[in-house]
Fold this protein.
Amino acid sequence: MWMFGSVQQTVSVARKSFKKVPCRRHGQAAFEFALILPVFIVFMLLIVDFGVLTYQYVSLANAAREGARYGATGCGANLCNQADVWDRTRDRSGGILDAGDTAEVSIGWANINGDSTASMTTADAIVVSVVHPYNFLFVPGARIDVISCADMRVEHRRPPGDLSVVTGCAP
């Protein structure tokens, strides 16, 4: 018992003496936060940029697919031409493609069986390709092309209208 009491007194005295030592770490957490904050902010901005880029890719892929499908089914009751397919592609792009962006979309038909260019058969395909530049929001001067291509088989024989012959989507 006598020893236990002395150990307790020694620990008590040691604790009191440590409280008197000045602590020099008052700003350590704030300093570490200040070092990490810029890296964290840049990382978060890049995540937002990548999200917008992914949204544009998905929207343009859906628009190309919709345009190709519209052309493959014969554009409703009309004779299918590039303007009709282009309008459908633009309308389905979620506002990414504008009326003045006609150079970003190429529309044609793939003469797969190679028999004749006078009419499209069910073996042929309508091809819609979209190349849209994406300028990064938070990286000045950085640019990447968002590329999407879709081809759909023609559902019934008909004249190609003003569609040009293309080779199809590259693998």
